[in-house]
Structures are given as structure tokens and as C-alpha cells.
UniProtKB/TrEMBL annotation:
An MF annotation (GO) of this entry: cysteine-type peptidase activity
Region forming the signal peptide: 1-18
Lineage summary: Eukaryota, Metazoa, Ecdysozoa, Nematoda, Chromadorea
Organism: Caenorhabditis nigoni
Keywords: Disulfide bond, Hydrolase, Protease, Signal, Thiol protease, Zymogen
Name of the protein: Peptidase C1A papain C-terminal domain-containing protein
Similarity annotation: Belongs to the peptidase C1 family.
Domain Cathepsin propeptide inhibitor: 28-88
Any GO BP annotation: proteolysis
Residue stretches making up the Peptidase C1A papain C-terminal domain: 122-350
Database matches in InterPro entries: Papain-like_cys_pep_sf, Pept_asp_AS, Pept_cys_AS, Peptidase_C1A, Peptidase_C1A_C, Peptidase_C1A_papain-like, Prot_inhib_I29
Length: 353
């Protein structure tokens, strides 16, 4: 009887594994090796396999749906595939965006002709990753916010890094942690969420340090009171960054003009849906964000635009989930329709204007 009790957990674990198809088991093993997943116990591995199997099936359904509607977007297994919905959603902001009417409105260099972009001499496709200043890039590598919900700080820094690179003609990685710790004052920790417009305002008032001066620590901003921005060397000096919001009526063409003529990205704040998690390639068009509960938000940087081979206009968006997600860390979403409110709260910033 004693020996039976010893082997019972092993037998149950093997039974649960046997419930899954060989396809799922093979994909799980490849996933585990590729993402260097190490589970502490057989029980934890069994639980993670269960989550993986559910997500594996859901991704198959999403791809079948995309094919049914003739869309080129694809979804795939990624590093979140063994996580629950609750675990995945720790990366999102719980803070709803507000109107920042105190910010000046971006003034275009050319007369506005809504929905007639060619009138401003703007090309049909443009991407800041193709731009260099004296041989130096103006867009750095995609970063990883990990399990902290300070996407808004990473979106802020995506703007300020490019603004600084253009101004100094030398790209430097700037501190996301400084923004996450210091920019959204009050009782809300940075990892709970924030607004990139507040991040840009902070840099405008206080400047910003380098990543080396103020390095990123995943859970540092889980509590408030961790800001140590005083008495540090800054790369961007206080008072030199000018922040602008976009007129929502002309957001699409003004963002495009700002990208092409000023070479500056735009920080965007949008509602999140399930499909965003599993995005692999193509242009994301579905707005399942409006079915997601509770309502959660995510901040990103728009660094380019174009039109897909099947005629869908899109934004090229830099995420902060590392380069092993999506299209090397980027996602393309439908442009000109305010996809999941991505064109409702954008902002940008320029040094020295």
C-alpha cells in the first residue's frame, strides 16, 4: 500500500500528459527548449502543459478565423504560451487615459488635407529603422518590460531616444526605469500602469538619464517611493524637450508627416485584445479589444507606416516585449480607422524646437 501511494502522483501526472495529443506534446517540448523553460516540479510542468494545450488550440482557431476572412495576419505560439490570461495581463496598464489639453497641439509643416496624404509629399511607405544620422541609428533595439506593467515608460523612452539621437547625432539607450519610478506621481506604482504623455512631460521638466546610469529592474516599481532621479547625470537636459499632442481629427496624417519630415516616433495608448498577445505576422485588423474584460491598456511607439501587399494601410508599431515576439518585436496594425483607439491619444516630442 505504501508503494502505491508513492507512485500515485507519478501515475496521475503521466495520465494527465497522456490526455494531450502527440502534436501538443511535441510542440510543448520544442517550446520548452526554445524558451529555456525550467519547471521546478513535475506538478508545475503538468500545469504549464495544460495552459499550453489550451493556448495551442486557441491559436489554431485564430488562424482558421483569419483564413476564413481572407486576412494575411498569422498568430503563433510565443513565450506566453504556458501562461494563464491573468499572468499575461500583468504587462498591461490599468490606468485609463485622460485628456492632456495642457499640451500644445502638433503643428504640421504642410497644409492639412485629411485623407489626402500625397498632398504633403509624404511617401506611401516609411520606417524610421531605415534612417541613420552619420552612420548611427535613430531607433534602438527592442527592449523587454518583462512582467512589470510599465509599457508606458518604454513607449516614452522610444520617443526620447530618437529625439536625442537626432539632436546629438549619436544614439544612446535611455532609462526606462527612471520614467517608471518617477514620472507618474501619486499613489499608483509604475508597474500598475501610467501614461506616456506624463512620461514625456517628466523628461521635459527634469531631463533623462542613460540606461547605464539608472538601469532597469523588473519589479522595482511595484511600489511607490523608489524615485532616485535627483543627483544623477542626464543625457537629455531639463527644459530642452518639447512635447506635443495630436489633433485627433488629423491624427493619421499628422503622425505620418511627423515620422517622415521630423523622423520622430509617436507614443500611442490603446485598448488590448486577445489577438494582440498571439500576433506573429501580417497586419492586425480585428478589434477584439472591445470584447476584452476588464478593460486594459497598452502603450507602444509608432515608428513607421505603409500599405500591405493585400492593400491594407498599417502602422508599424514598436512593442516592449523583446525581439522574440511578433515581427522581431514589432507589430503592424490597421491604420486610419483608430484601431482600438490607437489614434486617439498619441503624443510626440522634439528637442530644441
Amino acid at each position: 500500500m505504501f508503494h502505491i501511494l508513492i507512485f500515485l502522483p507519478i501515475l496521475l501526472s503521466n495520465f494527465c500528459i497522456a490526455q494531450h495529443s502527440q502534436e501538443v506534446l511535441d510542440h510543448f517540448e520544442k517550446f520548452r527548449v526554445h524558451h529555456k523553460k525550467h519547471y521546478r516540479t513535475p506538478e508545475e510542468k503538468k500545469i504549464r502543459l495544460g495552459h499550453f494545450a489550451k493556448n495551442h488550440q486557441r491559436i489554431k482557431e485564430l488562424n482558421e478565423e483569419a483564413r476564413k476572412f481572407g486576412r494575411s495576419v498569422t498568430f503563433g505560439l510565443n513565450k506566453f504560451a504556458d501562461k494563464t490570461k491573468e499572468e499575461r495581463h500583468g504587462r498591461f496598464s490599468k490606468i485609463h487615459p485622460k485628456n492632456h489639453t495642457d499640451l500644445p497641439v502638433y503643428k504640421p509643416k504642410h497644409a492639412r488635407h485629411q485623407k489626402r496624404i500625397s498632398k504633403r509629399g509624404i511617401p506611401e511607405n516609411f520606417d524610421l529603422r531605415s534612417v541613420q544620422i552619420d552612420g548611427s541609428p535613430i531607433v534602438g533595439p527592442v527592449k523587454d518590460q518583462e512582467r512589470c506593467g510599465c509599457c508606458w515608460a518604454f513607449a516614452t523612452t522610444a520617443i526620447t531616444e530618437t529625439a536625442q539621437a537626432l539632436y546629438s547625432k549619436n544614439y544612446r539607450s535611455l532609462s526606462d526605469q527612471e520614467i517608471c519610478d518617477c514620472a507618474d506621481s501619486g499613489d499608483t506604482p509604475g508597474c500598475v500602469g501610467g501614461d506616456p504623455r506624463n512620461g514625456l512631460k517628466f523628461v521635459s521638466r527634469n531631463g533623462q538619464s542613460s540606461d547605464g546610469e539608472y538601469p532597469y529592474e523588473e519589479f522595482r516599481a511595484n511600489t511607490t517611493g523608489n524615485c532616485v532621479a535627483d543627483d544623477r547625470d542626464t543625457v537629455i537636459q531639463a527644459g530642452t524637450l518639447n512635447v506635443y499632442r495630436f489633433d485627433e481629427q488629423y491624427a493619421e496624417e499628422d503622425i505620418m508627416e511627423n515620422l517622415f519630415y521630423n523622423h520622430i516616433p509617436s507614443a500611442a495608448y490603446f485598448r488590448v485584445g486577445e489577438k494582440f498577445f498571439w500576433y506573429n505576422s501580417g497586419v492586425l485588423q480585428s478589434e477584439d479589444c472591445y470584447q476584452m474584460t476588464p478593460i486594459e491598456w497598452h502603450s507602444v511607439a509608432i515608428i513607421g507606416y505603409g500599405t500591405s501587399d493585400d492593400g491594407v494601410p498599417y502602422w508599424t508599431v514598436r512593442n516592449s516585449w523583446n525581439s522574440d515576439w511578433g515581427e522581431d518585436g514589432y507589430v503592424r496594425v490597421k491604420r486610419g480607422v483608430d484601431w482600438c483607439l490607437i489614434e486617439s491619444h498619441p503624443a510626440t516630442a522634439i528637442i530644441g524646437e
